[in-house]
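for the record, two folds in this file. i put them one after another cuz i was lazy. first one right below, seq on top, structure tokens after. the second one comes after a little note so u can tell where it starts
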Amino acid sequence: MSNTVYHSTEKSLSRSRFLDQLSFNSLKVKDYVVITSTLIVMVLSIFAFIYFKPDIERIHFERMSTWWGATINYIAVTLLVLQLAFLAYLLFLYIKYKPIKSVSDEELPLISVIVPAYNEGKLVYETLLSLAESDYPKEKLQILSIDDGSKDDTWAWMLKAKALIGDRLTIYQQPKNMGKRHALYRAFKEGNGEVFVTVDSDSIVKEDTLRIMVSPFVVNEKCGAVAGNVRVLNKQDSLIPKMLNVSFVFSFEFVRSAQSAIGSVLCTPGALAAYRRDAVMNCLENWINQKFNGKRSDIGEDRAMTNMILKQGLHVLFQKKAYVYTNTPVEYKGLYKMFIRWERSNVRENIMMSKFAFTKFREESTTGSRILLSMQWLKVIMAYPLILLLFSFVITHPIIFLCTSLTGAFIFSSVQMFFYAKKYNISEGFLAYTYSIFYLFTLFWITPYAIATASRSGWLTRELPTA
């Protein structure tokens, strides 16, 4: 993982101004070279698609003359229609979405902010300081941080933060590394807030983030959990964080906004989430003792908690203006390990959600939740057929595969590009195209592999760097 941290003395900027600047264009000359190369490849692929159109049509008609070819074609058309219809549905929900405004200091409840840490070093210190400097009423803010048996100097940095912040911060040290879920469990037991807020130990919040996160619990008595808006802190470190930032904007500000419109955000992110105390306590023991295929679950604690809160008939919302900036992997190895963990959790929790999603689990309509889950399952179910079809196409018609797949990537990534460009800046928005090619050729295997290894445990990205 990257070790980007905020240093006010080095940057001569307040934390707030520093975070605000992360929304500006951060591209370097080499990034523009990559983007230009990407666009050239995309344009060439479109021209190639037009050039090979007669051959593509010939292959299509040849396959349509066989039963298996016709079947594949009908399935492909059906999937395309479903994806377009789902995108239109999300757009409809996105338009309906309205974030909840911050309530007054008097209305804000007592909260316990929880920061689990493992081998984070100075990053946890920066996280704790950003929380302590929030504009949340000091008398209503309790901060708990748990060192989960770190092998580095994390505990020393937590002690330094404690000396600076004082009684508002309580720190604990686990006797050994037990996993993030156990660290959170201890803090849930120790915290006395009406609302729990969890923040990753490599993340920085804005001054108004906590009050914005907590306000929905005051306004909506059926609100059980809230997801924050995750952006990338270490954009300057490499191209990968820059691409992830564009992807995060779409997955949070578009997808989760749409999910929030029906009170069914499927996953509260580990980087920033909030939970109503009663909702957590209702499922806490089931959550800590959760098993998959007979083994204790040590990944996907955020999605698991979200599922258990949805099952109680409560709403899970998204607060677009509750920003948290988190460090992401800067190298390919760290990235694919993170994605494997996420996808394994996705497979597991799709199964768990399926056990209640098709029952009357809440008073309001459950149709939207079922649609969201069904589209999650569609991705899982089609993972192997699509990858087999991909390989067969690569072997039989490699050039046509390249031009058609790149043209398709251009069309669908244009949605993300225009969304990011409208929200922030067009220059970084072009990275949506770069990321689509990067994912197509280097990360296509993640979902099939995660399905095959869904029972495996392990965080994968928490090792200390080797010399």
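(here's the note) second protein begins now
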Amino acid sequence: MLLNNLTAISPVDGRYSSKTVELRPFFSEFALMKYRLRVEIEWFIFLSLEKNIKDLPPLSKNEIKKLRSIYENFSLKDSKRVKTIENKTNHDVKAIEYFLKEQVKDFKFSKYSEFIHFACTSEDINNLSYSLMIKESSKQVLTKEIKITLKELKKLAKKHSKDAMLSRTHGQPASPTTMGKELSNFVYRIDQIKDQIEKHKLKGKMNGAVGNFNAHKVAYPKANWESLSKRFINKLGLEYNPYTTQIEPKDNLVEFFHHHQRLSNVLIDLSRDIWGYISLNYFSQSLKEGEVGSSTMPHKVNPIDFENAEGNLNISKGIFNSLNDSLQISRWQRDLSDSTSIRNIGVGFAHILIALKSLQKGLGKLQLNKKFLLEDLDNSIEILTEAIQTIIRKNNIPNGYEIMKDLSRGKKITEEDINVLINSLKIPSDDKNTLLDLKSRTYTGLASKLSRDL
């Protein structure tokens, strides 16, 4: 059976392939080969320009350009050749080394090809490749989609900054807010995590079989290998980790995944809240001609975009939970259990990407039903008891809270009940008039300002 989006096992490459195509240049098998090739070539170039590596002469600018073109122009045909070599070696990184040696065999400097993969263990190449894949995919794809989602959400928050709404704590009526303020809360939370993702510095190592530069020191004892390794890693745009075994311990990588798990939790919180507002008729969703909401109930317009986002975010969290539990642990100086786990990084990010695009679609459909917001507020006059008991306290009248509790707790009170009580209070006329003028739909504090100030 041919592989396509209808025959793929994973929905990431099947049903949702059109939403995840941007990640293929970063997380496919082809992409991993290309990144490994890039690290191998850059290490070779770096060594050639180091004066202490006397047996490898400096490459010319033209030779460097020619060498870099191997990974820049890496093709599907090239990747198939790598797989053919791997079928023989049964080692994916060694296959990259042999492929690169094939590619340079006609180059002027081919007699120095043994400096390809020089003093490296496979994990030197792998850890840098994965860090670059994650760093560049985050910058070019995921962070961009987070920003698009934030822009849509912020636009809604500003638009509805003045639209008063009944709050609900424990599912029960509470002090009013505005729809814009509630959406602003999510804008702020998501923006905070986005900043942490953007500022996070991924780490790398390039220090040999067990992290001690054993082979390096034997070959070139006068070279400052710690400094060379750090400069090379920094040149790639990564942060140097000086203390490792054969593997970079992944503590830093797990921290990066935790950012995305927290992002997923906030996005799930947003999805569920909007789902709830739709069920309360606070929001309706614009219709698209020809779409069906239910196979049996013709009237249905379901909040499917927010449900889809929630489902994909939960899957992503599960993947990153598994990675976080496994990647920080490796027997002694290294075991291979992380190798298969880490290949699923792209799947975790793909489900976040699907969720972000679903959220963007869902947010674009929302239409506020102000009528239902105001009806709920007008039917919940009891929420003004907070304001009244606060004014009573302000005037140093004992038992203000208890007075309002006796009037309202577990009871359905009316505006008349409220006004009778206010008129009976021995408080200054200004305070009394403030309370008599107060309505559920105007008792929103600084909600509107907070939303506008975002």
